[in-house]
Amino acid sequence: MQIVDILLLVVSVLLISIIILQRSNEDASQAFTGRKSELFANKKERGLDVWISRVIAFLSVSFFILAILAAFFVERI
Fold first, then answer.
1. Residues 12-19: contacts with CB within 8 Å, 24+ apart?
2. I want to staple 5 with a disulfide (CB 3.0 to 4.6 A). Which of 1, 24, 43, 59 is the partner?
């Protein structure tokens, strides 16, 4: 494994972990009952939510860049 592959694996595990930690504002039952959803309401993030959003954005961009780099460094047979 090359260093790019290891970094891609670490970033992907971190990204999954942070997304799982993210708090949901919606009740899952509302998606199936058809009640009015506040999913796209204009709500301001506060405190830990802002920090988690920024970390997710950084890890997402890092994952995308590392995936492109890994595709270029793959050994072609």
1. 12/63, 14/59, 15/56, 15/59, 15/60, 15/63, 18/52, 18/55, 18/56, 18/59, 19/56
2. 1
